[in-house]
Write the structure tokens for this entry.
Amino acid sequence: MKIDRLFIFYIILICINLLADGVQPEGSGTEVDPYQVEILDNLLWISTNSSSWDKDFIQTADIDASDTQNWNNGGGFVTIAIDSVFTGNYNGLNHTIDSLYINHSLSYPYGPGLFCIATNTIQNLGLINVNIITGQYGVGGLIGINGGTIINCYTTGDVNGDGYYTGGLVGRNYFNGNIINCYSTCNVNGHSGVGGLVGLNSNNATIINCYSIGNVNGNGNVGGLIGQNGEANVNNSYCSGDVSGNYNIGGLVGNNYFNGNIINCYSLGAVSGTDFIGGLVGDNEYNGNIDKCYSIGQVDGMNQTGGLVGNNDSSIVNNSFFDMNTSGQTTSFGGTGKTTIEMHNVATYTSLNTIGLTSAWDFVGNPFDDYGSNDYWDIDSEINDGYPYFTNPYVVGIETEMSLLQNYNISNYPNPFNPSTTIEFSIQTVSKVKLSIYNIKGQKIKTLANNEFNKGSYSIIWNGVDESGKPVSSGLYFYKLNVNSKIEATKKMLLLK
């Protein structure tokens, strides 16, 4: 009898796999032999094969997913681990999925995105021209609900939800979820908890070194980067899209609450709404904390409107500023208003003689009363319209990055490469140049040049080793060109062995 039961069990497992649509990718799904995803039918197989949702995957080619608009009678792609949890790992190896279409109003209301709920690691993946029509709860271009780690991922296109928590990348980031070095250019529309990157960031979750540039619209708790941030952290991030809605509308975060921390962040876009409208945060309440942030966008509201913060209830706003000239506001419920000229002056952020500053921001070169060593910030009249910008290579905006790449003509070939690649760049005047290699964790692994260069074009070979001469592993790396002590340009390259 025991043998018969085992036989029946194995038959059931075989039938489940036979019923899975699509084409099984090569590999066995283990860490050392991951499934290799290279065509749309491989994604279909993952989505319909629940036994694969705890396995390891790598993506080995760019995938055209435009045909998904014809799937499931208009419902499009069925989210991976729909109504369940994806506990596996997915490494896109810097590849893309193009034109993924999802309309869960016709199938499942929860978790529209490539993944429904993910609790492990998703990395090095771009979803371009994504089109999510609607969803009720936790709607994101990449993941509906994230409780794991997302590294070096991005989305472009349109994301729409008609319920709670809609974001360009992730609908809800919670329970120690981490989003690192990611961005979204999606235009995002939703109802409550709507953000250019994330709808809701909560429960000890963290967003760091991220940005969004799409426009965001919703009814309540709407932010250019994050709709709501509670018991969670946002660091070294920014947004530039316009934000509109009804209540709790902020250039960066709509509602910051319950010990939510926003540190070293800024917003550039226009903000409009009715109640609790702020250039950076709409409503900062219940021990919300804002420190070393700024906003410059036009702010329009009817009630409780501020240049930086619309409402500040039992919360803290320190060392933060808004541009009175560009915002159209002279007051704020937290933060200090400055003229555009003052906002362009590094002394505003680093001299303790500045009204509203009790602790200096951490800038390159340690001006005035700045004694920090992380060099988060820099300022240049030709970059970011003269306002402070981030020096971290992962948070350089698309517009800024493209202009800098053109200025220095930085590139590498071949890319991908094995075992070596040549990095080329141009210098316009005699300059101190530093060329460094970083891994995906932001750790510097090799300095290729650190000396003075005359005007001209140069080529430097990296042979895939670290400072000790040890070969590095396959994966995504960044090369960063630093000119005269300023982060000037960063690009990506892929080592495949």
